[in-house]
Amino acid sequence: MTDMEVEISPAQIEALQLSPSLSPASTFSCPSSPGSSSSSCSDCSLHCHNHQHDSSSSPRSSSPSGCSSGCSSGCSSGSSSGGMRGCSPPLDLCEDPAVNLDLVIDPEVALKACHDVLQKVKLLKVDEEPEMLEKCPLRRQLPNGTIYLESCDAALIKEEEQDVPSDLSQQTKLACQQPCNKSSIEEEEEDEVCALPRHTPCDTGLIKEEEEDDDEEKEKPHPPRQTTRRCPHARQPSNDQSLAAAKQSLLLRLFESKLFDVSMAISYLYKSKEPGVQAYIGNRLFSFPDDEVDFHLPQLLNMYVHMDEDMGDAIRPYVVHRCRRSIAFSLQTAWLLGAYSSDMHISTQRHSRGTKLRKLILSDELKPHAACKGASPTDTGCPGLRDCTRIHHHHHQRHTGEPGPVPDGHTVPADAFLSPSKRTHQRSKSDATHCTSLGASLKRTASSPKVECGYDEPLRLTPQREFIKSLMGIGKRLATLPTKEQKTQRLISELSLLNHKLPDRVWLPTAAFDHHVVRVPHTQAVVLNSKDKAPYIIYVEVLECESFEASGVPVRIPETRIRSARSADNLLPESVAITAEHRAGSFSTVPNYDNDDEAWAVDDIGELQVELPEGHTSSSDNISQFSVDSITSTESKEPIFIAAGDIRRRLSENLAHTPTTFRRDPEDPSAVALKEPWEEKVRRIREGSPYGHLPYWRLLSVIVKCGDDLRQELLAFQVLSQLQSIWEQERVPLWIKPYKILVMSSDSGMIEPVLNAVSLHQVRKQSQLTLLDYFLQEHGSYTTEAFLTAQRNFVQSCAGYSLICYLLQVKDRHNGNILLDSEGHIIHIDFGFILSSSPRNLGFETSAFKLTSEFVDVMGGLDGDMFNYYKMLMLQGLIAARKHMEKVVQIVEIMQQGSHLPCFHGSSTIRSLKERFHMSLTEEQLQVLVEQMVDGSMRSITTKLYDGFQYFTNGIM
Amino acid sequence: MSQLEKKAGLLRRTSSSKKPLKEKVVLMYDEIFVKDDPAKTNPRFWDELFLMKVNLEYLETKLESLDGDEVMKTKDNVNSLFHHCVQTLAEEHQIKVVNALQTLCALFRGVHQKNKSASGFDIINMLMGFDKAELRMKDLMESLDSLLCGEGSESLKALCLKLLLCLVTVTDNISQNTILEYVMINSIFEAILQILSDVSNRGRHGYDAVVLLALLVNYRKYESVNPYIVKLSIMDDEPTLDGMGLVVGQALTEYNRQYKDKEEENLGGFFSTLTSMVGSMFIADADEKLSVQTNEAILLALYEAVHLNRNFITVLAQSHPEIDIPTTPTTPISTTPTTPLGTTPPSTDVMNSSELPLDPNLQTSNLLITFLKYSSIVMQDTKDEHRLNSARLCLIILTCIAEDQYADAFLHDDNMNFRVNLHRMPMRHRKKAAEKNVPSRPLVCAVLDLMVEFIVTHMMKDFPMDLYMRCVQVIHKLICYQKKCRIRLHYTWRELWSALINLLKFLLSNETVLLAKHNIFHLALLVVNLFNMFITYGDTFLPTSNSYDELYYEIVRMHQVFDNLYCMVLRVSTNAGQWKEPASKVTHSLVNVRAIINHFNPKIESYAAVNHISQLSEDQVLEVVRSNYDTLTLKLQDGLDQYERYSEQPKEAAFFKDLVRSISLNVRKNVSLTTLSQDVLLKEFSTIS
């Protein structure tokens, strides 16, 4: 480990040495700390506490043997079990603690934590310097309750700056608990870890302060109870901890390494039974970019709901923290919690954990810490920003004993710091400076526990919930109507109502950018094909904005305004106002072949009779209000002749050139709507919208599903996304299109529609062509570039989805569930039957995936290059997927926890899934396997049977 | 409603009543018309008067019976009565307010009935006195405004609206009602809007408010600046516009429903009537039974909204489920006595209820659909004056709609498909059924259907030339839009073509009769130009290439009609006479049609000859057409896609004047204040106080 220390620049070291300030509030205990080297897993908490305290004075030297396997867990056991529990219940710094605590903290946990504290105190009394004790009164000034480190230690720092600048040394010692427990790190990673000691990610621990604290004796030093993992300090060479640091476990080093990503974190979180590790990772979550964690949110929440207490405690702070910061996250979490809790028995305690958190979120208690008045864009962004030096810098200041505000302190409102967007590890310069002001504000608030927020946001979540509720309500009501047509009509009128009372601040959760929904163009909505449910697709006009929560809500423009926006006269499209001259020009003027002079006689006379100057004729076009009577006057000019054949030809050409549209079919209203090219639709809707002229106007669409469980879809989306990124990483040009899924409850949700795509069923029914002919019609003949591109797209997507279908055992593959987009890709939808479940278990679809002769025809036949390319792609894809199997399996495996989803039916789901990756086969064997699968699928009689079955039962072609 | 009748009624009533003695209130009225100043002897006279139940009939009759000298004698007292009425309106005592409102009504009516010939100034002088008039009316309007907008009793609001309707309709010609000048100055517009925008108010008073507005807008429409026109035209408040649309929609729906009920009632008798009428041109008897009194007032309101207010167009397309429940007083009839005030069921207001009623049979509808259905009923029978006017107004409204680009946009919106079950005139040669299966189509198809339906059903001796002109113009405007915006409507154009050709045929065969009354060449020109639109611009809006062939097929098939028309117009245009000019225009417009006929006919004949077929099938003709396009040259005609925009003045001014007059009469007849049963009011107010 020494080499590690060497890596640290002197400046850093100095900074680190000076840094103790960070700790004061918080002892660095943590999973990491003592363990690494030492204690077997069985270490009891007591033991651990000892360690901790010891560590401050004496080098840590427990058994260096350190179980190689127990590794992860080995470490922190004790300390963390105490500390971890400690850190879990988040407390509001400024809010009335009484309100929150009841909701947040499990009394049992609290009690136990309290007990731990007492014990620690006893130990401390023996070992610690007096400063420790001095700190107590200070601590008591804090409003009781758990505090996020971010706010908390900032606050404390400030306090200390002002009041107790003396207790440095003690802090230093405390600060240096080693957060490292590792032993199971792979060798390869070690180097990296050593080379790049990472300071920041670990300062995420939560300080916990129980309400009981207040009741305890004054002498009780609280800090030890608090856990913060601040790795950097581990490497202070000058410290006692240096030794311990040397014994950092490999696992910790892995955790600190760059390679440690969310996926691994989730994996370790899931696998580790050691509360310390769980807690550590729970804290570590804070350091990952939001969107990366969001991807694994279902796993996280499923673990929260279904796994043990410690897991819940590890995850909870992060979730609560995120909820505070974002309305969208809050709602999504609440929805997922609801959905994943639904499988449990009502009476179970675990159940109540999920539902309790859900209730808490929905009760809207989890507001940003203070007002978010100061939530400026700078506060919000850059999740990845880790500015350690700032922290150190700050500490340095402290060390030199500057009690006052930081010299370079910006004058930032105190509450700016409290903006929900803050994260501990993101201490940018501004953060550091804010700390001081926060301290001030804390002092103020400490005396009067009721903090004036001066900010009331009565309905944070309500508008959106109402919005979603009404969408779901519509779906439910539609389901009762018998025909598609009635459904569609009702949908339109329901949406028109909704449009009227659209709440102010709502958004579409599937969108990739922040926005406000301004209008639902109700006439565009259609009901999708479904036998007994009524899923429907709506288009939603939104205005993009900086931040959903901070940006102002757009002004409502009444529907009628469209009139003023576009005057009737301007309405005519440019191309449309073709005057007679233009028109004549566009036709070839032809001689009058018709020998029937009589027909022209009158005209000729007219021409002869009235002769007007040329100039006059052109002006006639500009007379806007031309009465029909004006024909006589126009006779004056040279007559323009046009060939009837031209008109007819033009008509056919125009018709041919317009993109092929589908016939309107009352039984399949969505076909036309989905076939319309997206750009076209956007343009059309934009023209008709009173908001259309705004620069940030965007059109989104979403499928609202009511009565369907989308949890499997979500799982499939995750697996698909994971595989997609794996293939991208491995540079295999497989094409798949995971579409976003939003689970809102166990029987409702939203789906992001695949744009410019219609189902194969619709293609066949509307075009009455084979797939190949349809390709030729849409893209051009065999040799055209357009066709070849489309064909390549088809092959790449086919290969991608063949693998997906095989790996996930996607069933119910009738043509209504396979889309074809305008570029030739196929996209499989509806993952209602995956893994262990299949429709009614009829035993149809026994082949590995669906590969019909039609598909093969599009690929150019069995002997074609493209078909070989297809097989090659599958092989490459399988090899790549195999390499990262864990990432994929883990997603599924975690979701199996406590789930009653049909896809997990039986006990062998995961085993079979793993088997399908064929880890044991050589690449040659794999190739044979692919050949076999392709061959088998192509010849599969069951595929044909199933298609036939679908045709007869559901009319799906 | 002559004075004599009224008196007689009054006498009979008093004699039959149990009280042989004159009521106290009557005595007090007498005092007003006899004494110098009733307050002199009894300082509390006025207070007491308004506590008495009003005897409207007596008061009105008394006023009517005054002649010149007496008028001058009692003028001060009448002024005083008016003054005290207005003062009382501001009082809290609701009974007094009610009585004052009713007394005011009697005053307006009585004075006007007496002085039908008198100038407006005399009336004002008699009621209020010249010097005080402005102040009095200002007070009156302000009181009414606050009563209407306030939280007060529903009955009071209803009464206020009745008073206003009464005031607005006291003269036959609204523009001669000089008192309205004060209503112009002291606008009640905002109060009307508030009623329309508020759900519960709209349910109860919406109908009256809309009628009142429609009438006020027509006060001196063409002579001066009417603030109501200005305000209505710039109104852009969505809830209010929606509210107005709902009131109109409900009234029209109610009419449609009543008609349907009657139709079903008569269905049994209908067939027997029909069979008994074989050979008879007149099926009016049967229709009469079906006739439900049309509601021009509400139609006028719709027209004014569509014509004046750009924003109202959007309301037309606002979809809501079809409401079949009668919710508001919809026809003037229903404002009559039988509806006790305050007992109107709360309106099921669709736009504001949080959830739509869930009934699979409930069709989604909108104001435009309701209006189209209404029009289809009204247009069935145009024999009586009222219905003719209604049909004309419907067509005018459709003209306005067809001209509006936004309306056109949603008419042609491919995503807004509706089933519109238009009512079809029962005709001997076609079945009435088979309508239920109308497919769901863009709304413009329904409009075109309606026009086609009109064209084929009104070729009668008493030719409604004016309506035909409007009808063909509506079609033309729609096609112009389609051509401009390149919208290829999947409509069975063939029906339209054959309807138009039949129309030409009818014009030809009735030439002499029709020419005596109408300029048939104008209509013929419009029709031929519609064909020219299809011929020269068909490529821009026809849905399929086959449809262009079919157009030629239709023209060639019916070539005789065009030939005859050509002969006729050529004949007329060569003769000197009043029709020379218009007829020659038609001759010119026939150029392309004749070119087509002359081009294809020989080809078809030779095809038949070559193939030895006597009768070519349609497919064969189409084949010939298709293969011979290239040698046909057409002449490009100018201005085909241009039209004269609708303008109310000066062309329609007379029509609207008459219409408003008839509406005024109708409303006056139906606004009867005596009907406000005092009992109901008393009951209501006794609980309040």
Question: What's a concise summary of this model?
Answer:
The complex is a heterodimer of chains A (957) and B (689). Chain A is 51% helix and 5% strand.
Please state the structural category of chain B: mainly alpha
The description of the largest β-sheet of chain A is: 6 strands, antiparallel
Radius of gyration of chain A: 34 Å
Shape assignment of chain A: globular
**In this structure, how is the largest beta sheet of chain B organized?**
2 strands, antiparallel
What is the number of helices of chain A? 44
The protein's oligomeric status is: heterodimer
- Helix content estimate of chain B: 55-70%
Share in β-strands of chain A: 5-15%
Residues in helix, % of chain A:
40-55%
What overall form of chain B do the CA principal axes indicate?
Answer: elongated
Number of strands of chain A: 10
Distance between the termini of chain B: 37 Å
Low-confidence stretches of chain A: 1-105, 124-247, 370-458, 563-636
The SS-based structural class of chain A is mainly alpha
Rg of Cα set of chain B: 30 Å
Largest interface: A-B, 82 and 81 residues
Q: How far do the termini of chain A sit from each other? A: 67 Å
Q: Count of DSSP helices of chain B?
A: 33
Average residue pLDDT of chain A? 63
Average pLDDT reading of chain B: 80
Record the SSE blueprint:
The complex is a heterodimer of chains A (957) and B (689).
Chain A: H1 2-7, H2 10-18, H3 45-57, H4 71-74, H5 77-87, H6 97-104, H7 107-127, H8 130-141, H9 149-163, H10 168-175, H11 187-195, H12 241-246, H13 250-256, H14 262-271, H15 275-284, H16 290-295, H17 297-306, H18 309-325, H19 327-341, H20 349-362, H21 377-380, H22 388-399, H23 414-417, H24 429-447, H25 462-479, H26 484-500, E1 515-519, E2 526-527, E3 536-544, H27 561-565, H28 580-586, H29 597-609, H30 614-619, H31 631-634, E4 640-643, H32 644-657, H33 669-675, H34 678-687, E5 697-706, H35 711-729, E6 741-745, E7 748-751, E8 757-759, H36 760-767, H37 771-779, H38 785-808, E9 818-821, E10 826-828, H39 853-858, H40 865-883, H41 885-896, H42 909-915, H43 923-939, H44 941-954
Antiparallel strand pairs in A: 1-3, 2-3, 3-5, 5-7, 6-7, 8-9, 9-10
Helix pairs in contact in A: 2-22, 3-5, 3-7, 3-10, 5-7, 5-15, 5-18, 9-24, 11-13, 14-15, 15-18, 17-18, 17-19, 17-20, 18-19, 19-20, 25-26, 35-41, 37-38, 38-40, 40-43
Chain B: H1 3-16, H2 24-34, H3 38-41, H4 45-49, H5 56-65, H6 68-89, H7 94-114, H8 120-127, H9 130-149, H10 154-168, H11 180-185, H12 189-197, H13 199-217, H14 227-234, H15 238-276, H16 284-290, H17 296-308, H18 312-316, E1 319-321, E2 364-366, H19 367-378, H20 385-403, H21 405-411, E3 417-418, E4 441-442, H22 443-457, H23 465-485, H24 493-509, H25 511-517, H26 520-541, H27 545-557, H28 559-574, H29 580-589, H30 591-611, H31 618-627, E5 633-636, H32 653-670, H33 678-688
Antiparallel strand pairs in B: 1-2, 3-4
Helix pairs in contact in B: 1-5, 5-7, 6-7, 6-9, 7-10, 9-10, 9-12, 10-13, 12-13, 12-15, 13-15, 13-17, 15-16, 15-17, 15-19, 17-20, 19-22, 20-23, 22-23, 22-24, 23-26, 24-26, 24-27, 24-28, 26-27, 26-29, 27-31, 28-29
